[in-house]
Design brief:
Two copies of one chain form a homodimer.
Chain A lengths: L4 E6 L3 H10 L12 E7 L16 E2 L2 H5 L6 E4 L7 H10 L3 E4 L2 H18 L3 E2 L11 H5 L6 E8 L2 H13 L3 H11 L7 H4 L2 H15 L9 E2 L7 H9 L2 E12 L2 E12 L11 E9 L2 E8 L3 H21 L24 E11 L4 H11 L4 E8 L4 E8 L2 E2 H10 L10 E8 L4
Parallel strand pairs in A: 1-2, 1-4, 2-3, 4-5, 5-6, 8-10, 10-17
Antiparallel strand pairs in A: 7-9, 7-11, 9-10, 11-12, 13-15, 13-16, 13-17, 14-15
Helix pairs in contact in A: 1-11, 3-4, 4-9, 6-7
């Protein structure tokens, strides 16, 4: 590589600006950064004040012209969203450009198509910034950890929901209050659905599962529940029982196949993920023979995400310096897409909060019903209300989800149970 | 690469056996592992029962013959200790073999010599297993994180001392009791000095600092204190003040240069490193623009360390597949060896426990003395003893170590102070 690599940046928002900031101040960073030059930057409008300055002719509103420009080596896609991001990435690939992207939505849905196109064109597509912001997780999964048989990945990979759950726990506030606060602070969007309903985490665990297990997972296969149902009282009870409630994204190898899911989960306080607070992310990887390793850090933010984007650029520069051959470390899934294990077959612990009229025999009836469905209880705690109602909190040992759901469905029909409500059913991190 | 890569393994202890175990069961691991073959294994004696079986002629007691064998591509050094490990590594390099080693003692002392020899011979020397056991830290520092300006590395990188400190905290026991227990459990050596006096952590932070800052650090430059002086009562007081005591290895960029040190440190309970318990390791890297990222996992053990060894083997296989050229990602320090910042110039917080005769004016005298030396106090707590003595616990704001030491030296000469003892002086993780 005699000349600098020329890159075209699509998007100059927070991450794009921070990416340019790193490349324009290469001192005390990896020496290869000096060999990367920002040649074009695609923006929506030219007449806006920017935090970084570029030479005349670098800024353009013509994104198509960037991805087809024969002078560019790499396209960095940072505009987000599905279209035109997907089409621009594919067009850049078909014009022999390497691609770096932070776009988890595009990769989780169209990753297979994009990687196939890249393999045909002989270019790299690197995605370190798509999951976990600045935390190095994609590359360790592909390299250092890939000599292990990966058993599971457990992640807190959505900062917004972790911020909300942390606030709810420390302040005792309810979901809707804290959501409003998070929106005012800019930690949650006006339309918070992608975060609070778990879709963003689902995108990310789809990507991690595909890499870790070498099997193409698709987003539609992922079972997904958000945090809207988690109440302040659930967090209090969990606390009393020794747990924190976290929105976990989980990919697990089961005997019958892979299981991939996102849902609020009770995590024992002594578990490494229990202490991950605020907008931080953490990903816990378990494999043989390594045991557990965890990666922790800022899951979002311009600077952190830009660190991941630029590390991908540097890695492309390094690989091109060695050879034009395709990097064998970028492993394409070895297995075709398969069915995941359905959520009914999940083996986990459960927490349920049950309210009904307080009369003798309630606990006994519940115990018998759970037993009949092979649901073994770890604890059952009754709190009596003043108004004649009892609130009963149940934590199970490992059970099959299907059995637990059948038991729950039968409870309203039990003799001693009247005016029942089951305001909360949550999964508890399973026992070993 | 048409043929499998042939490796020679030096040492078949816990890590060697686990390394062979991974290579001999490549299913569900990275496909490149199938292209690595164990051709020779060097051991002390042939007539010992082993957990893994090898074909006839693979085991040998002639280590020299392995490192000079023209049929071998890679030598994996797992015998530990300084000699003959260093000589064998250098001889392997001079015979054009790539080297993978877990030997932190050799790399921290002779890394410069070894890397220079490797650069001349055009071979790789990979050391992921030398720090943090299975935790991927060397490669992320060289790759993903290297686009950042690294400001600091804080690590709990010695499992034995962390186990001892955790036990002392949970059981209220004293150092010597817990050390005996750790020795019985096999977590501490019969001669525990390398661990409890901080030398093992010093080896490892030397390696991390050299990589992170691109500057050759040598072991003799590292200021090193172990945990023998930490008492159960210090841990209790720290607890009351909201801290955990951890043996931290710290490399920090200061305005005047680098500072590298190992010492017991009070860590605020809400800090990510405060929750790292038992034999686990964690490394917290802080840089611009990424902020803080932490890597956590098993810092020792056969399987975890073997995972790191084999990931290095796989990376060599991958790089050789691309080209015989030297990998530009393996950055050799860009700067020559420089002076580190002396410990006297350290700016940190301090904790001190002072015992003296309880008389009026003691606190005032102490406060005035600290103030005179520009030491600002965060808290000063007096506990009266029955026997006429007072125990006083002091925590400072950020101060210069030199100023604090001068104040301490003056305390015995103060008017109100009689029969003084200062049983503990510990550093507290500094304020931002």
């Amino acid at each position: 590589m005699v000349e600098a690599l020329k890159i075209g940046l699509l998007g100059l928002g927070t991450v794009g600006t921070a990416t340019a900031g790193i490349l324009l101040s290469p001192e005390s960073r990896h020496p290869l950064l000096k060999e990367i030059e920002i040649a074009k930057v695609g923006v929506k409008t030219l007449d806006k004040r920017r935090a970084v300055e570029f030479a005349d002719g670098v800024l353009t509103t013509d994104l198509e012209a960037i991805v087809t420009d024969p002078d560019l080596d790499i396209v960095v896609e940072l505009i987000g969203g599905l279209e035109p991001a997907r089409s621009l990435i594919l067009k850049a690939i078909s014009h022999q450009k390497h691609v770096v992207t932070a776009n988890k939505a595009v990769i989780s849905r169209y990753g297979e198509e994009i990687y196939r196109a890249a393999a045909e064109a002989g270019v790299y597509v690197l995605i370190e910034a798509a999951v976990g912001g600045g935390i190095p997780i994609i590359r360790p999964l592909q390299q250092s950890l890939s000599v292990n048989r990966i058993d599971s990945i457990l992640g807190i990979i959505n900062g917004t929901t972790n911020f909300i759950l942390t606030k709810m726990a420390t302040e005792g506030s309810d979901f809707s209050e804290v959501l409003t606060e998070a929106q005012e602070l800019g930690y949650a969007e006006a339309d918070p659905s992608a975060d609070v309903d778990g879709y963003d985490a689902a995108d990310k665990i789809t990507i991690l599962a595909t890499l870790a297990f070498g099997e193409q997972v698709s987003l539609e296969q992922v079972s997904c529940e958000g945090i809207r149902q988690v109440s302040a009282v659930d967090i209090q009870y969990a606390e009393r029982l020794g747990f924190e409630i976290k929105l976990l994204a989980i990919a697990q190898r089961e005997q019958s196949g892979l299981q991939v899911r996102v849902h609020p989960t009770l995590v024992p306080k002594e578990h490494p993920l229990a202490n991950i607070d605020g907008v931080n992310n953490a990903i816990l990887v378990e494999g043989d023979p390594i045991g557990q390793v965890m990666f922790y850090g800022p899951g979002a933010g311009g600077g952190a995400t830009a660190s991941a984007v630029v590390s991908d650029l540097m890695n492309i520069a390094a690989m091109l310096k060695v050879s034009q051959a395709v990097n064998p470390l970028l492993k394409i899934p070895q297995h075709p897409r398969r069915e995941l294990v359905p959520i009914q077959e999940l083996v986990t612990r459960f927490y349920a909060r049950i309210i009904c009229i307080d009369r003798p025999g309630v606990i006994g009836n519940l115990g018998t019903c759970f037993g009949k469905h092979k649901v073994s209880l770890e604890s059952i705690v009754q709190i009596d209300f003043n108004n004649g109602f009892a609130e009963i909190v149940v934590v199970t040992h490992n059970v099959k989800e299907e059995n637990f759901r059948q038991a729950l469905a039968e409870i309203p029909h039990l003799d001693a149970i009247e005016q029942i409500q089951i305001p909360s059913v949550l999964r508890v991190l399973r026992e070993k």
